[in-house]
Design goal:
The complex is a heterodimer of chains A (about 260) and B (about 280).
Chain A lengths: L1 E10 L2 E11 L4 E5 L6 H8 L7 E6 L2 E2 L7 E4 L3 H4 L6 H6 L9 H14 L15 H13 L5 E5 L7 H18 L2 E6 L2 H7 L2 E5 L7 E6 L10 H4 L1 H18 L8
Parallel strand pairs in A: 3-8, 3-9, 6-7, 7-8
Antiparallel strand pairs in A: 1-2, 1-4, 4-5, 9-10
Helix pairs in contact in A: 4-5, 7-9
Chain B lengths: L3 H28 L11 H11 L3 H34 L1 H14 L8 H8 L3 H26 L2 H9 L4 H39 L5 H8 L5 H30 L1 H4 L27
Helix pairs in contact in B: 2-10, 3-4, 3-6, 3-8, 3-9, 5-6, 6-8, 7-8, 8-9, 8-10, 9-10
The chains are: A alpha/beta (about 260), B mainly alpha (about 280).
Chain lengths: ~260, ~280
């Protein structure tokens, strides 16, 4: 279980996060939406222990986060910078396993299994930059899954991909989540995406000084698909509600320009 | 590939043409009697002499001695400069504390230190290796520090997020990312090291080596021709070393030539003295 107790963070005089409290039960996929610059990435980095919380506490499974929590994995939006260009795809994926004292052959075998699982075949020996953006992000997802994380943080992971690739990867994420029941915090600025992949959507207010302004359970069936789910009344109702909340925090009129 | 091959062939052709023209001009100037033959013997005679030297046992032993000192000095320089560069590039306090000293030492012409070091260490291999190491330290050191500044902070964060500690991040993210810069530094140092090897031998004046050969040739009959033949060897060695190292860089760091995504550059608060010697071709 992930718990945030009035977490605040400042950069200089600027308040970025202002008393964020959240509890994410095990196995939940929490979508975090908010306008750009609202501190979503800062929130994620704070949970990851990459930035220390200045006020408040983050606890993972009851232990307060001081450094990077154990069994954590992160997927960043900038896959091209997050994957190491000098390693092959396979060695990139096998990298987190180095901390588990596995031999080279075992690491590579695990990496290849997980690559198959995310739908990548025959690219193990290529280098990341030889692949398309969507494939690179699949590699990054494989790398995040390889050490069976109990907490997976994703920072706008599909933000720079084209629509089709994005749908494929959203479905891949849902499939992985169903199978592994990992706790996932999924940051996005895409309202539809937040509802489509999430079990729950949290809307952050615009910075400076972000707070949680809306917290909605996603009442959609576990089995989702891009066409029927997105066309269902329940989906439309939810995305409208989330959309209104995001517009409100941006200070835009609730129904859009007339 | 298809686009690059003709370009390469053209470059090679132009290079050969330039060499042939230089050869032709030297030959013509000497043959036409514009310069006295004892000042500038025809290029063909120099080249023939240089080729003959390849069969001269004593001369080859001398080349061996020079190359050994070169390799020892360059190796020593790398062994010192890379760890020192990693330290300077990752611990700002150390960098700030040593900057003044380094900036004082760096512009000293290494050749000017030959008499001093000879006085302290005698005129043997120790002196030669020390001077070579000193002179070749700088390009490797500065390129290491510069390369570290270019490491993508997101690569570091990724490794940290997977639970790697500070040292592991340094070895697995910073060091490989910096390797192409270090290699470019080593290639530059390799030429500097050759200059220092020959210069130290020339000035110390006894023992064995390419510099000694050149120094002794000055005093013999037909001296200019032999001196120039020695110079041709020095140039050829430099060319070969550079070619081998550039080829190795090209093979090892193919990944660094791939188009890379725009990285947010780490902001520096202080102006950097490090000069940029970019590996491979420049990124757009």
């Amino acid at each position: 279980m992930l718990r945030l107790d009035s977490v605040s963070r400042r950069f200089g005089e600027q308040h970025v996060l202002d008393g964020i409290s959240l509890t994410v039960p095990d196995g939940q996929l929490l979508s975090v939406v908010g306008p750009s610059g609202c501190g979503k990435s800062t929130l994620l980095r704070t949970i990851a222990g990459l930035l220390p919380a200045q006020e408040g506490t983050v606890t993972v499974d009851g232990t307060p986060v001081t450094g990077v929590p154990e069994r954590l994995a992160v997927v960043f939006q900038e896959y091209g910078r997050s994957l190491l260009p000098w390693l092959t795809v396979r060695d990139n994926v096998a990298l987190p396993l180095r901390r588990r004292g596995l031999g080279r052959a075992a690491r590579r075998a695990e990496a290849e299994t997980i690559l198959e699982r995310v739908g990548l075949h025959g690219v193990a020996r290529r280098r990341p930059r030889e692949l398309s953006g969507g494939m690179q992000q699949r590699v990054a997802i494989a790398r995040a899954l390889v050490c069976r994380p109990s907490l997976l943080l994703m920072d706008e992971p599909f933000g720079s991909l084209d629509a089709g690739t994005r749908e494929d990867l959203e479905d891949l994420l849902l499939e992985v989540h169903r199978a592994d029941e990992t706790t996932i915090v999924f940051v996005t600025h895409d309202i539809d995406e937040s509802v489509y992949v999430g079990d729950r959507v949290v809307v952050l207010s615009a910075g400076p000084g972000s707070r949680v302004v809306r917290d909605l359970p996603v009442t959609l069936p576990g089995e989702r698909d891009q066409i029927t789910t997105r066309g269902s009344t329940a989906f439309v109702t939810l995305r409208t509600e989330v959309g209104r909340a995001v517009r409100a925090v941006r200070g835009a009129p609730p129904e859009g320009p007339r | 590939m298809t686009r690059r091959d003709p370009t390469r062939r053209r470059e090679l052709l132009l290079g050969l043409l330039g060499a042939a023209a230089a050869f032709g001009i030297c030959e013509a100037v000497s043959r036409a009697g514009l310069v006295r033959r004892s000042y500038l013997p025809p290029a063909s005679e120099v080249v023939v002499r240089a080729v003959r030297l390849a069969g001269d046992r004593a001369f080859l032993d001398g080349i061996g001695v020079t190359l050994r000192a070169w390799a020892l000095g360059l190796g020593l320089a790398c062994a010192l400069a890379v760890p020192l560069g990693l330290l300077l590039g990752t611990v700002p306090v150390v960098e700030a504390a040593t900057r003044a000293v380094l900036e004082f030492l760096r512009p000293l012409p290494s050749v000017a230190l030959i008499p001093l070091v000879s006085l302290l260490l005698g005129s043997g291999t120790e002196t030669e290796v020390t001077l070579i190491a000193y002179a070749s330290l700088w390009p490797v050191l500065f390129n290491t520090v510069y390369g570290l500044g270019e490491t993508d902070p997101l690569a570091r964060d990724t490794l940290r997020a997977f639970g790697f500690g500070r040292l592991a991040v340094l070895l697995r993210a910073d060091l490989p990312a910096t390797a192409p810069f270090i290699a470019a530094g080593v290639r530059i140092s390799a030429s500097v090291a050759l200059i220092l090897a020959v210069a130290t031998e020339l000035l110390s004046g006894f023992g064995q080596g390419l510099g000694i050969f050149i120094a002794q040739a000055q005093t013999s009959t037909d001296g200019t021709r032999d001196v120039l033949a020695g110079v041709v060897w020095a140039g050829a060695l430099g060319l070969a070393v550079n070619g081998i190292l550039a080829g190795a860089e090209h093979r090892l760091f193919a990944w660094a030539r791939e188009p890379r995504p725009e990285a947010r550059r780490p902001r520096r608060t202080t102006p950097q003295p490090w000069t940029r010697t970019h590996p491979g071709r420049d990124h757009p």
